[in-house]
Amino acid sequence: MEAFKSIANPLSSFFLICILLLFANAAYGKTHYHDFVIQATPVKRLCKTHNAITVNGEFPGPTLEVNNGDTLVVKVVNRARYNVTIHWHGVRQMKTGWADGPEFVTQCPIRPGKSYTYRYTIQGQEGTLWWHAHSSWLRATVYGALIIHPKEGENYPFTKPKRETPILLGEWWDTNPIDVVRRATRTGAAPNVSDAYTINGQPGDLYKCSKQDTTIVHVDSGETNLIRVVNAGLNQQLFFTVANHKFTVVGADASYVKPFTTSVLMLGPGQTTDVLIKTDQPASRYYMAARAYASAQGAPFDNTTTTAILEYKTASCSSNCVKINPVFPSLPAYNDTATATAFTTKFRSPRKVELPTEIDENLFFTVGLGLQNCPRGARSRNCQGPNGTRFAASMNNVSFVLPSNFSLLQAHHQGLPGVFSTDFPAVPPVKFDYTGNVSRSLWQPIRGTKLYKLRYGAKVQVVLQGTSIFTAENHPIHLHGYDFYIIAEGFGNFNPKRDTAKFNLVDPPLRNTASVPANGWTVIRFVADNPGVWLMHCHLDVHITWGLAMAFVVENGVSELESLEGPPVDFPVC
What we know:
- Helices cover 11% and strands 36% of the residues.
- By secondary structure, the chain is mainly beta.
- The chain is globular and about 70 Å long.
- It is found in: Secreted, Extracellular space, Apoplast.
- Its cofactor is Cu cation.
- Lignin degradation and detoxification of lignin-derived products.
- Belongs to the multicopper oxidase family.
Protein backbone atom coordinates (compact mmCIF):
# COMPACT_ATOMS: atom_id res chain seq x y z
CA MET A 1 0.00 0.00 0.00
CA GLU A 2 2.84 2.41 0.90
CA ALA A 3 4.54 1.54 -2.40
CA PHE A 4 1.29 2.34 -4.27
CA LYS A 5 1.06 5.72 -2.50
CA SER A 6 4.63 6.59 -3.44
CA ILE A 7 3.76 5.91 -7.10
CA ALA A 8 0.35 7.64 -6.94
CA ASN A 9 1.67 10.87 -5.40
CA PRO A 10 4.13 11.64 -8.22
CA LEU A 11 1.42 10.72 -10.75
CA SER A 12 -1.16 12.99 -9.13
CA SER A 13 1.44 15.77 -8.91
CA PHE A 14 2.26 15.31 -12.60
CA PHE A 15 -1.42 15.54 -13.61
CA LEU A 16 -1.88 18.57 -11.36
CA ILE A 17 1.07 20.32 -13.02
CA CYS A 18 -0.38 19.50 -16.49
CA ILE A 19 -3.76 20.95 -15.52
CA LEU A 20 -2.14 24.09 -14.10
CA LEU A 21 -0.08 24.52 -17.29
CA LEU A 22 -3.22 24.20 -19.40
CA PHE A 23 -4.98 26.85 -17.32
CA ALA A 24 -1.90 29.11 -17.43
CA ASN A 25 -1.74 28.79 -21.22
CA ALA A 26 -5.43 29.67 -21.50
CA ALA A 27 -5.01 32.63 -19.14
CA TYR A 28 -1.81 34.09 -20.61
CA GLY A 29 -1.97 32.93 -24.22
CA LYS A 30 0.77 31.77 -26.54
CA THR A 31 3.80 33.61 -27.86
CA HIS A 32 4.16 33.79 -31.64
CA TYR A 33 7.56 34.48 -33.21
CA HIS A 34 7.90 35.93 -36.71
CA ASP A 35 10.69 37.28 -38.89
CA PHE A 36 9.94 40.17 -41.24
CA VAL A 37 12.62 40.86 -43.83
CA ILE A 38 12.06 44.20 -45.56
CA GLN A 39 13.43 43.85 -49.08
CA ALA A 40 13.05 44.97 -52.68
CA THR A 41 11.17 42.35 -54.72
CA PRO A 42 10.29 42.33 -58.44
CA VAL A 43 6.48 42.70 -58.64
CA LYS A 44 4.73 42.82 -62.01
CA ARG A 45 1.44 44.73 -62.26
CA LEU A 46 -0.19 46.60 -65.18
CA CYS A 47 2.32 45.05 -67.65
CA LYS A 48 5.38 46.49 -65.85
CA THR A 49 7.76 45.06 -63.26
CA HIS A 50 8.79 47.27 -60.35
CA ASN A 51 11.22 46.62 -57.52
CA ALA A 52 8.58 46.99 -54.80
CA ILE A 53 9.45 47.04 -51.10
CA THR A 54 7.92 43.95 -49.47
CA VAL A 55 8.02 41.79 -46.36
CA ASN A 56 9.62 38.38 -47.00
CA GLY A 57 9.14 38.89 -50.75
CA GLU A 58 5.34 38.76 -50.38
CA PHE A 59 2.84 41.33 -51.65
CA PRO A 60 0.68 41.83 -49.68
CA GLY A 61 2.75 40.70 -46.72
CA PRO A 62 2.12 37.70 -44.48
CA THR A 63 -1.15 37.35 -42.58
CA LEU A 64 -0.58 36.99 -38.83
CA GLU A 65 -3.15 34.94 -36.90
CA VAL A 66 -3.33 34.96 -33.11
CA ASN A 67 -5.82 34.55 -30.30
CA ASN A 68 -6.95 37.23 -27.88
CA GLY A 69 -4.38 37.18 -25.06
CA ASP A 70 -1.47 36.02 -27.23
CA THR A 71 1.91 37.76 -27.49
CA LEU A 72 3.66 38.63 -30.75
CA VAL A 73 7.43 38.88 -31.12
CA VAL A 74 8.30 40.12 -34.61
CA LYS A 75 11.93 40.70 -35.60
CA VAL A 76 12.11 43.19 -38.46
CA VAL A 77 15.32 43.14 -40.52
CA ASN A 78 15.70 46.03 -42.97
CA ARG A 79 17.41 44.93 -46.20
CA ALA A 80 15.82 47.71 -48.25
CA ARG A 81 17.39 51.06 -49.14
CA TYR A 82 14.88 53.12 -47.15
CA ASN A 83 14.37 53.67 -43.44
CA VAL A 84 11.38 51.68 -42.19
CA THR A 85 9.13 51.09 -39.19
CA ILE A 86 6.12 48.78 -38.74
CA HIS A 87 2.88 49.91 -37.08
CA TRP A 88 0.43 47.35 -35.69
CA HIS A 89 -2.69 49.29 -36.59
CA GLY A 90 -5.32 49.21 -33.85
CA VAL A 91 -3.34 47.18 -31.29
CA ARG A 92 -3.81 48.87 -27.90
CA GLN A 93 -0.11 48.45 -26.96
CA MET A 94 -0.88 48.72 -23.25
CA LYS A 95 2.34 50.07 -21.66
CA THR A 96 4.31 48.90 -24.75
CA GLY A 97 4.34 52.16 -26.71
CA TRP A 98 7.88 51.40 -27.93
CA ALA A 99 6.32 48.75 -30.18
CA ASP A 100 3.68 51.01 -31.77
CA GLY A 101 5.82 51.91 -34.76
CA PRO A 102 5.19 55.42 -36.19
CA GLU A 103 8.50 56.88 -37.31
CA PHE A 104 9.92 59.60 -35.00
CA VAL A 105 6.84 59.32 -32.75
CA THR A 106 7.44 56.13 -30.76
CA GLN A 107 10.75 55.11 -32.31
CA CYS A 108 13.54 56.15 -34.59
CA PRO A 109 13.45 54.35 -37.93
CA ILE A 110 15.13 51.01 -38.59
CA ARG A 111 18.03 52.02 -40.83
CA PRO A 112 19.07 49.90 -43.84
CA GLY A 113 21.04 46.90 -42.60
CA LYS A 114 19.65 47.19 -39.04
CA SER A 115 16.91 45.31 -37.14
CA TYR A 116 14.41 45.82 -34.34
CA THR A 117 12.15 43.36 -32.52
CA TYR A 118 8.57 44.39 -31.74
CA ARG A 119 7.09 42.72 -28.63
CA TYR A 120 3.48 43.23 -27.55
CA THR A 121 0.43 41.39 -26.22
CA ILE A 122 -3.12 41.43 -27.59
CA GLN A 123 -5.41 42.38 -24.69
CA GLY A 124 -9.19 42.24 -24.99
CA GLN A 125 -9.36 42.62 -28.76
CA GLU A 126 -10.97 40.21 -31.25
CA GLY A 127 -11.53 40.59 -34.98
CA THR A 128 -9.50 42.10 -37.79
CA LEU A 129 -6.62 44.51 -37.51
CA TRP A 130 -3.64 44.93 -39.81
CA TRP A 131 -0.01 45.97 -39.86
CA HIS A 132 1.77 48.37 -42.19
CA ALA A 133 4.91 50.43 -42.66
CA HIS A 134 4.70 53.81 -40.93
CA SER A 135 7.58 55.54 -42.71
CA SER A 136 7.11 57.76 -45.75
CA TRP A 137 4.81 56.01 -48.26
CA LEU A 138 6.27 52.52 -47.84
CA ARG A 139 2.91 51.18 -46.71
CA ALA A 140 1.80 51.28 -50.37
CA THR A 141 3.29 47.77 -50.56
CA VAL A 142 4.34 46.93 -46.97
CA TYR A 143 1.16 45.74 -45.28
CA GLY A 144 -0.75 42.64 -44.21
CA ALA A 145 -3.64 41.38 -42.11
CA LEU A 146 -3.53 40.77 -38.34
CA ILE A 147 -6.36 38.41 -37.43
CA ILE A 148 -7.30 38.00 -33.76
CA HIS A 149 -9.44 34.97 -32.95
CA PRO A 150 -11.26 34.55 -29.63
CA LYS A 151 -9.35 32.99 -26.74
CA GLU A 152 -8.93 29.24 -27.05
CA GLY A 153 -12.17 27.51 -26.06
CA GLU A 154 -14.27 30.62 -26.71
CA ASN A 155 -16.52 31.28 -29.72
CA TYR A 156 -17.57 34.12 -31.97
CA PRO A 157 -20.79 35.84 -30.86
CA PHE A 158 -22.31 34.89 -34.24
CA THR A 159 -22.76 31.79 -36.39
CA LYS A 160 -19.45 30.00 -36.80
CA PRO A 161 -18.39 30.63 -40.42
CA LYS A 162 -17.52 27.79 -42.75
CA ARG A 163 -14.59 29.76 -44.18
CA GLU A 164 -12.74 32.96 -43.34
CA THR A 165 -11.17 35.15 -46.03
CA PRO A 166 -9.14 38.34 -45.58
CA ILE A 167 -9.80 40.91 -48.32
CA LEU A 168 -7.16 43.64 -48.38
CA LEU A 169 -8.01 46.65 -50.53
CA GLY A 170 -4.95 48.54 -51.72
CA GLU A 171 -3.64 51.16 -54.11
CA TRP A 172 -0.96 50.62 -56.78
CA TRP A 173 1.24 53.19 -58.45
CA ASP A 174 2.84 52.28 -61.78
CA THR A 175 6.03 53.87 -60.46
CA ASN A 176 7.93 54.02 -57.18
CA PRO A 177 5.51 55.48 -54.57
CA ILE A 178 8.45 56.95 -52.64
CA ASP A 179 9.33 58.99 -55.73
CA VAL A 180 5.70 60.16 -55.91
CA VAL A 181 5.66 61.59 -52.38
CA ARG A 182 9.19 63.00 -52.66
CA ARG A 183 8.23 64.85 -55.85
CA ALA A 184 5.12 66.26 -54.16
CA THR A 185 7.14 67.34 -51.11
CA ARG A 186 9.70 69.03 -53.32
CA THR A 187 7.17 70.87 -55.50
CA GLY A 188 4.50 71.63 -52.90
CA ALA A 189 1.87 70.27 -55.30
CA ALA A 190 -0.57 67.40 -54.75
CA PRO A 191 0.94 63.96 -55.44
CA ASN A 192 -0.13 61.91 -58.45
CA VAL A 193 -3.10 59.65 -57.74
CA SER A 194 -2.73 55.87 -57.91
CA ASP A 195 -3.00 53.95 -61.19
CA ALA A 196 -5.03 51.05 -59.83
CA TYR A 197 -6.78 49.68 -56.80
CA THR A 198 -6.09 46.09 -55.75
CA ILE A 199 -7.79 43.23 -53.92
CA ASN A 200 -5.23 41.06 -52.15
CA GLY A 201 -2.54 42.66 -54.28
CA GLN A 202 -4.20 42.10 -57.68
CA PRO A 203 -5.95 44.82 -59.73
CA GLY A 204 -8.42 42.43 -61.40
CA ASP A 205 -10.12 41.94 -64.74
CA LEU A 206 -10.69 45.59 -65.67
CA TYR A 207 -7.00 46.54 -65.89
CA LYS A 208 -4.44 45.77 -68.59
CA CYS A 209 -2.29 42.63 -68.16
CA SER A 210 -4.17 41.68 -65.00
CA LYS A 211 -6.98 39.23 -65.83
CA GLN A 212 -4.90 36.07 -65.48
CA ASP A 213 -3.99 36.92 -61.86
CA THR A 214 -7.36 38.18 -60.58
CA THR A 215 -8.01 37.10 -56.98
CA ILE A 216 -10.55 34.26 -56.79
CA VAL A 217 -12.41 33.40 -53.59
CA HIS A 218 -13.79 29.86 -53.76
CA VAL A 219 -17.04 29.00 -51.96
CA ASP A 220 -19.69 26.28 -51.91
CA SER A 221 -23.43 26.81 -52.02
CA GLY A 222 -25.26 27.09 -48.71
CA GLU A 223 -22.34 28.36 -46.63
CA THR A 224 -22.06 31.25 -44.21
CA ASN A 225 -18.57 32.70 -44.59
CA LEU A 226 -16.66 35.47 -42.83
CA ILE A 227 -14.96 38.11 -44.97
CA ARG A 228 -12.46 40.36 -43.21
CA VAL A 229 -12.21 43.57 -45.24
CA VAL A 230 -9.31 46.00 -44.72
CA ASN A 231 -8.83 49.30 -46.51
CA ALA A 232 -5.04 49.30 -46.82
CA GLY A 233 -5.09 52.02 -49.49
CA LEU A 234 -2.98 55.12 -48.98
CA ASN A 235 -5.24 57.98 -49.93
CA GLN A 236 -8.75 56.86 -50.80
CA GLN A 237 -11.95 55.88 -49.05
CA LEU A 238 -13.47 52.93 -50.89
CA PHE A 239 -16.89 51.43 -51.50
CA PHE A 240 -16.90 47.60 -51.56
CA THR A 241 -19.63 45.20 -52.65
CA VAL A 242 -20.29 41.69 -54.02
CA ALA A 243 -22.74 41.24 -56.89
CA ASN A 244 -26.18 39.88 -55.84
CA HIS A 245 -25.08 39.24 -52.23
CA LYS A 246 -25.76 41.03 -48.96
CA PHE A 247 -23.43 41.43 -46.01
CA THR A 248 -24.18 41.09 -42.31
CA VAL A 249 -21.71 43.38 -40.55
CA VAL A 250 -20.51 41.78 -37.28
CA GLY A 251 -17.30 43.61 -36.42
CA ALA A 252 -15.10 46.62 -37.13
CA ASP A 253 -11.59 47.58 -36.00
CA ALA A 254 -11.35 44.41 -33.83
CA SER A 255 -14.53 45.14 -31.88
CA TYR A 256 -17.85 43.32 -32.29
CA VAL A 257 -20.87 45.34 -33.39
CA LYS A 258 -24.62 44.86 -33.29
CA PRO A 259 -25.20 42.95 -36.56
CA PHE A 260 -26.81 44.83 -39.44
CA THR A 261 -27.39 44.06 -43.10
CA THR A 262 -26.09 46.09 -46.04
CA SER A 263 -25.23 45.58 -49.70
CA VAL A 264 -22.28 47.97 -49.70
CA LEU A 265 -19.42 48.86 -47.33
CA MET A 266 -17.51 52.14 -47.11
CA LEU A 267 -14.10 52.00 -45.49
CA GLY A 268 -11.63 54.82 -44.99
CA PRO A 269 -7.93 53.93 -45.12
CA GLY A 270 -7.06 52.16 -41.88
CA GLN A 271 -10.54 50.84 -41.18
CA THR A 272 -11.54 47.17 -41.08
CA THR A 273 -14.99 45.59 -41.34
CA ASP A 274 -15.92 41.96 -40.64
CA VAL A 275 -18.95 40.69 -42.56
CA LEU A 276 -20.83 37.41 -42.87
CA ILE A 277 -21.91 36.50 -46.38
CA LYS A 278 -24.33 33.69 -47.26
CA THR A 279 -23.70 31.83 -50.50
CA ASP A 280 -27.41 31.60 -51.27
CA GLN A 281 -27.34 32.64 -54.93
CA PRO A 282 -27.41 30.40 -58.04
CA ALA A 283 -24.06 28.65 -58.44
CA SER A 284 -22.03 30.96 -60.65
CA ARG A 285 -19.26 33.60 -60.54
CA TYR A 286 -19.80 37.01 -58.96
CA TYR A 287 -17.55 40.03 -58.95
CA MET A 288 -16.36 41.55 -55.70
CA ALA A 289 -15.59 45.17 -56.53
CA ALA A 290 -14.18 48.30 -54.92
CA ARG A 291 -13.91 51.85 -56.16
CA ALA A 292 -13.45 55.34 -54.75
CA TYR A 293 -15.70 57.29 -52.47
CA ALA A 294 -14.36 60.70 -53.52
CA SER A 295 -15.79 63.37 -51.22
CA ALA A 296 -13.45 66.26 -52.12
CA GLN A 297 -15.18 68.31 -54.77
CA GLY A 298 -12.96 69.03 -57.76
CA ALA A 299 -9.94 67.09 -56.42
CA PRO A 300 -8.40 64.51 -58.77
CA PHE A 301 -8.79 60.85 -57.78
CA ASP A 302 -8.25 57.37 -59.18
CA ASN A 303 -11.62 56.53 -60.80
CA THR A 304 -10.79 52.92 -61.69
CA THR A 305 -12.47 49.80 -60.25
CA THR A 306 -10.72 46.76 -58.79
CA THR A 307 -12.35 43.33 -58.88
CA ALA A 308 -11.99 39.84 -57.48
CA ILE A 309 -14.27 36.86 -58.16
CA LEU A 310 -16.51 35.00 -55.72
CA GLU A 311 -16.66 31.60 -57.41
CA TYR A 312 -19.13 28.88 -56.42
CA LYS A 313 -17.57 25.43 -56.61
CA THR A 314 -20.50 23.00 -56.71
CA ALA A 315 -21.41 19.95 -58.75
CA SER A 316 -23.83 21.90 -60.94
CA CYS A 317 -21.12 24.42 -61.74
CA SER A 318 -17.91 22.39 -62.00
CA SER A 319 -17.85 21.71 -65.73
CA ASN A 320 -18.66 25.09 -67.23
CA CYS A 321 -18.36 27.59 -64.37
CA VAL A 322 -15.02 29.02 -65.47
CA LYS A 323 -16.50 30.00 -68.85
CA ILE A 324 -19.24 32.10 -67.28
CA ASN A 325 -18.58 35.84 -67.17
CA PRO A 326 -18.92 37.02 -63.58
CA VAL A 327 -22.00 39.02 -62.62
CA PHE A 328 -21.05 42.68 -62.14
CA PRO A 329 -22.40 44.59 -59.11
CA SER A 330 -23.86 48.05 -59.01
CA LEU A 331 -21.62 50.45 -57.08
CA PRO A 332 -22.52 53.83 -55.56
CA ALA A 333 -21.55 56.98 -57.42
CA TYR A 334 -18.08 58.25 -56.55
CA ASN A 335 -19.50 61.19 -54.59
CA ASP A 336 -22.37 59.31 -52.91
CA THR A 337 -22.07 60.84 -49.43
CA ALA A 338 -25.61 59.72 -48.56
CA THR A 339 -24.66 56.03 -48.94
CA ALA A 340 -21.40 56.54 -47.04
CA THR A 341 -23.24 58.28 -44.19
CA ALA A 342 -26.04 55.70 -44.07
CA PHE A 343 -23.38 53.02 -43.64
CA THR A 344 -21.20 54.69 -40.99
CA THR A 345 -24.17 55.71 -38.83
CA LYS A 346 -25.50 52.13 -38.58
CA PHE A 347 -22.72 50.98 -36.25
CA ARG A 348 -23.63 50.17 -32.66
CA SER A 349 -21.95 48.19 -29.89
CA PRO A 350 -23.65 44.84 -29.21
CA ARG A 351 -24.80 45.95 -25.75
CA LYS A 352 -24.82 48.92 -23.37
CA VAL A 353 -21.31 50.21 -22.81
CA GLU A 354 -19.52 51.79 -19.85
CA LEU A 355 -19.04 55.24 -21.32
CA PRO A 356 -17.12 58.08 -19.66
CA THR A 357 -19.77 60.61 -18.64
CA GLU A 358 -18.00 63.12 -16.36
CA ILE A 359 -15.58 64.66 -18.86
CA ASP A 360 -12.17 65.95 -17.67
CA GLU A 361 -10.87 67.13 -21.04
CA ASN A 362 -13.39 68.64 -23.45
CA LEU A 363 -11.42 69.20 -26.67
CA PHE A 364 -12.38 70.68 -30.02
CA PHE A 365 -10.03 69.99 -32.96
CA THR A 366 -10.48 71.34 -36.47
CA VAL A 367 -9.18 69.03 -39.20
CA GLY A 368 -8.59 70.18 -42.75
CA LEU A 369 -6.36 71.44 -45.51
CA GLY A 370 -4.51 74.71 -45.93
CA LEU A 371 -2.01 76.47 -48.15
CA GLN A 372 1.43 77.75 -47.21
CA ASN A 373 2.65 80.91 -48.91
CA CYS A 374 5.77 80.37 -50.95
CA PRO A 375 8.74 80.84 -48.56
CA ARG A 376 10.84 83.92 -49.18
CA GLY A 377 13.64 83.10 -51.60
CA ALA A 378 12.06 79.81 -52.74
CA ARG A 379 11.90 79.05 -56.44
CA SER A 380 8.59 78.80 -58.25
CA ARG A 381 9.26 75.11 -58.99
CA ASN A 382 9.02 74.50 -55.22
CA CYS A 383 5.66 76.26 -54.95
CA GLN A 384 3.44 74.47 -57.46
CA GLY A 385 0.32 74.43 -55.32
CA PRO A 386 -2.67 76.66 -56.18
CA ASN A 387 -1.59 80.24 -57.11
CA GLY A 388 2.07 79.63 -56.34
CA THR A 389 1.59 78.16 -52.84
CA ARG A 390 2.44 74.85 -51.17
CA PHE A 391 -0.23 72.43 -49.93
CA ALA A 392 -0.53 72.04 -46.17
CA ALA A 393 -2.91 70.50 -43.64
CA SER A 394 -3.47 71.00 -39.94
CA MET A 395 -5.36 70.31 -36.73
CA ASN A 396 -6.36 73.45 -34.83
CA ASN A 397 -4.24 75.43 -37.30
CA VAL A 398 -1.04 73.56 -36.31
CA SER A 399 0.66 71.72 -39.17
CA PHE A 400 2.48 68.87 -37.44
CA VAL A 401 6.24 68.58 -37.88
CA LEU A 402 8.00 65.35 -36.91
CA PRO A 403 11.36 65.61 -35.12
CA SER A 404 14.41 64.08 -36.81
CA ASN A 405 16.98 63.47 -34.06
CA PHE A 406 14.82 61.81 -31.40
CA SER A 407 11.47 60.10 -31.26
CA LEU A 408 8.78 61.92 -29.28
CA LEU A 409 8.37 58.98 -26.90
CA GLN A 410 12.12 58.87 -26.27
CA ALA A 411 12.18 62.62 -25.57
CA HIS A 412 9.20 62.27 -23.20
CA HIS A 413 10.63 59.23 -21.40
CA GLN A 414 14.09 60.78 -20.95
CA GLY A 415 12.87 64.32 -20.29
CA LEU A 416 14.80 65.74 -23.24
CA PRO A 417 14.07 69.47 -23.74
CA GLY A 418 13.53 71.17 -27.09
CA VAL A 419 12.12 68.20 -29.02
CA PHE A 420 8.44 69.11 -28.56
CA SER A 421 6.18 71.46 -26.64
CA THR A 422 2.92 70.63 -24.84
CA ASP A 423 0.96 73.67 -25.95
CA PHE A 424 -1.22 72.11 -28.62
CA PRO A 425 -4.43 74.18 -28.41
CA ALA A 426 -7.48 72.54 -26.80
CA VAL A 427 -9.75 74.59 -29.07
CA PRO A 428 -9.17 76.42 -32.38
CA PRO A 429 -7.06 79.58 -31.86
CA VAL A 430 -9.68 81.48 -33.86
CA LYS A 431 -13.36 80.57 -33.94
CA PHE A 432 -14.83 80.80 -37.46
CA ASP A 433 -17.50 79.36 -39.74
CA TYR A 434 -15.63 76.08 -40.19
CA THR A 435 -17.69 74.69 -43.05
CA GLY A 436 -18.64 78.00 -44.66
CA ASN A 437 -16.77 80.45 -46.85
CA VAL A 438 -13.56 80.69 -44.81
CA SER A 439 -11.50 83.88 -44.99
CA ARG A 440 -8.20 83.43 -46.86
CA SER A 441 -6.44 84.86 -43.82
CA LEU A 442 -7.17 81.54 -42.04
CA TRP A 443 -5.86 79.27 -44.78
CA GLN A 444 -2.20 79.31 -43.66
CA PRO A 445 -1.42 77.12 -40.63
CA ILE A 446 1.62 77.45 -38.39
CA ARG A 447 4.17 74.63 -38.33
CA GLY A 448 5.18 73.04 -35.06
CA THR A 449 5.72 69.92 -32.94
CA LYS A 450 3.00 70.60 -30.40
CA LEU A 451 1.57 67.86 -28.17
CA TYR A 452 -1.37 67.83 -25.74
CA LYS A 453 -0.77 66.46 -22.23
CA LEU A 454 -3.31 64.16 -20.54
CA ARG A 455 -3.08 62.89 -16.98
CA TYR A 456 -3.46 59.14 -16.53
CA GLY A 457 -7.12 58.18 -16.22
CA ALA A 458 -8.48 61.43 -17.69
CA LYS A 459 -11.88 61.10 -19.35
CA VAL A 460 -11.56 62.73 -22.77
CA GLN A 461 -14.06 63.98 -25.32
CA VAL A 462 -12.85 65.26 -28.70
CA VAL A 463 -15.01 67.02 -31.27
CA LEU A 464 -13.35 66.48 -34.65
CA GLN A 465 -14.60 69.31 -36.86
CA GLY A 466 -13.94 69.21 -40.60
CA THR A 467 -13.28 72.49 -42.41
CA SER A 468 -13.96 73.73 -45.93
CA ILE A 469 -10.54 75.39 -46.26
CA PHE A 470 -9.47 74.85 -49.89
CA THR A 471 -11.86 71.88 -50.14
CA ALA A 472 -13.97 69.88 -47.70
CA GLU A 473 -13.59 66.12 -47.64
CA ASN A 474 -14.07 63.04 -45.50
CA HIS A 475 -11.09 62.48 -43.16
CA PRO A 476 -10.40 59.05 -41.58
CA ILE A 477 -8.90 60.07 -38.23
CA HIS A 478 -6.87 57.35 -36.48
CA LEU A 479 -5.75 57.42 -32.83
CA HIS A 480 -2.79 55.22 -31.91
CA GLY A 481 -2.78 53.26 -28.66
CA TYR A 482 -6.53 53.58 -28.07
CA ASP A 483 -9.97 52.53 -29.11
CA PHE A 484 -12.62 55.22 -28.72
CA TYR A 485 -16.39 55.43 -28.74
CA ILE A 486 -17.97 57.38 -31.61
CA ILE A 487 -20.94 59.00 -29.88
CA ALA A 488 -22.21 61.20 -32.74
CA GLU A 489 -21.54 62.59 -36.18
CA GLY A 490 -23.22 65.21 -38.32
CA PHE A 491 -22.88 67.86 -40.99
CA GLY A 492 -22.11 71.57 -40.73
CA ASN A 493 -20.55 73.18 -37.67
CA PHE A 494 -20.83 71.31 -34.38
CA ASN A 495 -23.19 73.18 -32.06
CA PRO A 496 -23.10 71.88 -28.45
CA LYS A 497 -26.50 73.38 -27.64
CA ARG A 498 -28.15 71.57 -30.53
CA ASP A 499 -25.97 68.53 -31.22
CA THR A 500 -25.42 67.19 -27.71
CA ALA A 501 -28.96 65.80 -27.94
CA LYS A 502 -27.74 63.52 -30.76
CA PHE A 503 -25.14 61.79 -28.55
CA ASN A 504 -25.50 58.02 -28.32
CA LEU A 505 -24.56 57.37 -24.70
CA VAL A 506 -25.99 53.84 -24.65
CA ASP A 507 -24.37 51.66 -27.31
CA PRO A 508 -21.93 53.72 -29.42
CA PRO A 509 -19.47 51.74 -31.55
CA LEU A 510 -15.85 51.22 -30.44
CA ARG A 511 -13.38 52.09 -33.22
CA ASN A 512 -9.76 53.14 -33.75
CA THR A 513 -10.38 55.13 -36.95
CA ALA A 514 -13.33 57.51 -37.38
CA SER A 515 -14.60 58.88 -40.69
CA VAL A 516 -15.16 62.60 -40.13
CA PRO A 517 -17.83 63.54 -42.71
CA ALA A 518 -17.05 66.03 -45.46
CA ASN A 519 -18.10 69.45 -44.14
CA GLY A 520 -19.11 67.79 -40.89
CA TRP A 521 -18.03 66.59 -37.46
CA THR A 522 -17.54 63.50 -35.30
CA VAL A 523 -17.45 63.28 -31.49
CA ILE A 524 -15.34 60.61 -29.76
CA ARG A 525 -14.71 59.64 -26.13
CA PHE A 526 -12.00 57.60 -24.44
CA VAL A 527 -10.24 57.19 -21.09
CA ALA A 528 -6.51 58.00 -21.08
CA ASP A 529 -5.46 54.68 -19.51
CA ASN A 530 -2.40 53.94 -21.67
CA PRO A 531 0.73 55.99 -20.82
CA GLY A 532 3.00 57.13 -23.63
CA VAL A 533 2.98 59.35 -26.72
CA TRP A 534 0.15 58.57 -29.11
CA LEU A 535 -0.26 59.99 -32.59
CA MET A 536 -3.67 61.13 -33.84
CA HIS A 537 -3.71 61.73 -37.59
CA CYS A 538 -5.60 61.58 -40.83
CA HIS A 539 -5.03 58.17 -42.43
CA LEU A 540 -4.94 59.67 -45.91
CA ASP A 541 -1.15 59.58 -46.21
CA VAL A 542 -1.10 62.65 -48.43
CA HIS A 543 -2.65 64.59 -45.53
CA ILE A 544 -0.28 63.33 -42.83
CA THR A 545 2.56 64.25 -45.21
CA TRP A 546 1.14 67.80 -45.23
CA GLY A 547 0.82 67.90 -41.41
CA LEU A 548 -2.71 66.74 -40.52
CA ALA A 549 -1.70 65.23 -37.18
CA MET A 550 -1.07 65.85 -33.49
CA ALA A 551 -0.07 63.69 -30.54
CA PHE A 552 -1.19 63.15 -26.97
CA VAL A 553 1.29 62.72 -24.11
CA VAL A 554 -0.39 60.50 -21.54
CA GLU A 555 1.41 60.63 -18.21
CA ASN A 556 2.17 57.60 -16.04
CA GLY A 557 -0.27 56.65 -13.31
CA VAL A 558 0.69 55.99 -9.69
CA SER A 559 1.72 52.33 -9.89
CA GLU A 560 4.01 50.26 -12.10
CA LEU A 561 0.90 48.73 -13.70
CA GLU A 562 -0.08 52.24 -14.83
CA SER A 563 3.35 53.19 -16.17
CA LEU A 564 5.16 52.91 -19.49
CA GLU A 565 7.72 50.12 -19.61
CA GLY A 566 11.34 51.01 -20.36
CA PRO A 567 12.63 50.85 -23.95
CA PRO A 568 13.91 47.52 -25.29
CA VAL A 569 17.66 46.93 -25.52
CA ASP A 570 17.62 46.90 -29.35
CA PHE A 571 15.67 50.16 -29.64
CA PRO A 572 16.78 51.93 -32.84
CA VAL A 573 18.90 55.06 -32.48
CA CYS A 574 18.47 58.09 -34.68
